[in-house]
Write a structure and sequence with these properties.
about 325 residues, TIM Barrel, single chain, three-stranded antiparallel β-sheet
């Protein structure tokens, strides 16, 4: 399986991702499945068969939920979706940096819109816990961003096991401003208020917020205080970094070079929020060792993305079945 994955690396990045997902759909339909040794845990009142999940970004529209579930993940995160469909940024916008086992992407929340995803969630067969990542449309002014998040939250709330608020992508203009002290309290207060209103009708769905690895220590401290003050359910740590020197000059860097900055952010975050608030760690997990280091530094669950692109289903098997 790893050999087949590496063959896709000779194709253009975005095209090969789509082709690989279609191939995955075929082989799982034919019966391919990864069985995992049981390592269950309960977090956020959700039962996870293991601590490994797939990060948002690979299946933006919920087209491959059942196929990805067959790989043995403990949970999946779908999206990021926006209220209206959008094409994303101009191509080329996804680049491999093979020498570093990295990706640089400036996709820009390309997706078919939240209504398309809702229809996919309604017909899925998988019981794998499912998070849905939501964002704002590129042309929504930052001052009105909360309206986009609330609209998406209303639509996916009762269909998701948790909802992820993505305010940390570097590929939507000014989006990361929402992490700052000028916006964060109002955003989280509004999200929490809507969550409680929806919970009174449909039951409680946890909400987590996804952060950047590029925040200063002071910014992270202010952010953490706001998360605790507004009683958010957890944090996803982290998104991609904009600190890179790739020739494209834009986008977010993921993969092996992201491990150190994202893990440092994880350590600081755990210090600021205490031992109890759940953290899902993401960033640079390329093997079993890097997975375990995220757990050791304070993560409750861990997500992969770029490692999965480079190693394929073999990486999932290695981690969930503890093989080197």
């Amino acid at each position: 399986m790893r050999v087949i994955t590496k063959l896709f690396h000779f194709l253009p990045s975005e095209f090969s991702h789509r082709l690989a997902l279609e191939g995955l759909r075929i082989i799982t339909f034919l019966g391919f499945k990864i069985k995992s040794n049981p390592n269950p845990s309960t977090l956020l009142n959700i039962y996870f068969t293991n601590q490994l999940g797939l990060a948002a970004g690979l299946d933006k529209n919920g087209d491959y939920i059942d196929s990805l579930s067959a790989l043995g993940f403990g949970f999946l995160e779908i999206g990021t979706v926006t209220p209206r469909p959008q094409k994303g940024n101009q191509k080329p916008r996804l680049f491999r940096v093979k020498s570093q086992k990295a990706l640089v992407n400036s996709l820009g929340f390309n997706n078919k819109g939240v209504d398309y995803l809702v229809n996919k969630l309604k017909i899925k067969n998988s019981n794998t816990p499912l998070g849905v990542s939501i964002g704002k449309n590129f042309d929504t002014p930052i001052e009105l961003a909360i309206d986009d998040y609330l609209l998406c939250l209303d639509k996916v709330y009762k269909l998701a096991d948790y909802v992820a608020i993505n305010i940390s992508s570097p590929n939507t203009k000014n989006l990361r401003d929402l992490q700052s002290k000028d916006y964060i309290d109002q955003l989280l207060f509004s999200i929490r208020d809507r969550q409680l209103a929806l919970a009174s009708i449909d039951g409680y769905t946890p909400i987590l917020i996804k952060i950047s690895p590029d925040m200063s220590v002071e910014e992270l401290k202010i952010f953490s205080e706001s998360v605790l003050r507004n009683n958010l359910d957890g944090i996803i740590c982290t998104n991609t970094t904009s600190h890179h020197s790739h020739f494209s000059g834009a986008g977010g860097l993921s993969g092996k070079p992201l491990f150190d900055p994202s893990t440092l952010t994880l350590e600081l975050l755990r210090k600021f929020i205490g031992k109890d608030l759940p953290i899902i760690a993401s960033g640079g997990v390329m093997d079993l060792d890097s997975f375990q280091k995220k757990i050791d530094k304070g993560a409750n669950l861990v997500q992969i993305y770029t490692g999965f692109i480079y190693e394929g289903p073999s990486l999932v098997d290695e981690i969930i079945n503890f093989r080197n």
